[in-house]
Amino acid sequence: MIQSMTAFASRTGTLGPASWSWEMRGVNARGLDLRLRMPDGIEGLEVALRAALSKALARGNVTVNLRLTREEAGTALAVDETQLDAVLTALDAVQDRAFAMGVTLAQPTAADVLSQRGVLVPAKPDNLDDDLTKALIADIAPLVGDFVKMRQIEGRALHQVITDQLAQIETLTDAAAEAAAARAPQVKTNLTTALRRVMDDVSEIEEARVAQELALLAVKSDVTEEIDRLQTHVVAARDLLADQKPAGRKLDFLAQEFNREANTLCAKAQSAPLIVIGLDLKAVIDQMREQIQNVE
Prior knowledge:
There is one protein chain. By secondary structure, this protein is α+β, with helices and mostly antiparallel strands. It is built from nine helices and six strands. A hairpin with a 2-residue loop joins strand 1 and strand 2. The protein is elongated, with a radius of gyration of 37 Å. The relative contact order is 0.14.
């Protein structure tokens, strides 16, 4: 069963003071284009997500956003030693500069130091970062699973639409075969009239050349090959729809071949009913190709 490249999935979670939300969107693309927007500082998350997506998907432009927030929990505080060192270094530089200029400064107290921005911070629970990373990585499988499920649902709808369009193409191809057979007497009359006109206008003409020209005209107006190819393409497209492997690229190529045969059929028609059928074929084929653009 085919899958669509258009899908959406979301997921939320919490762990202690941390909460997060995932959003995953997909649209059609020639290949697999992954655009991942992850918060900094979560080691291994992007690698795990990229590996899971590459395994589950073959084609599509996929964007994944992860929003992560941390709430201040309780009143427990801790000293950020890195910031403390920076503040003490700055205070020491101020004292040295003041002494060099003959200015006496009062010694800062511990409370003064702690009041500086970033020195005193909310305490983090032990192993929170490790547990958060594990929770986020564990979220990847169900998120991708939901995304793939929606692609499958969309794919079933696409399968039905394309199947119906192939049935229309098959019906129109059969009608084209009947119209081609019905126009045979008229084509023969046209060729005979053309031959008589040539014979009347030319006093001397080689019979072999006349036969050659008539054969060429007959070939140019014969649509048997185009009809046969259209029927073959319908069978091939149905086989691709039934294939379990991604078939979007092959279906897109086949849609181009459908269009080529329909164009040739119209060019060779020499009959109003056959031209109408050819134009109807082109319309259905264009509609089908639009749907195929979303097939993985």
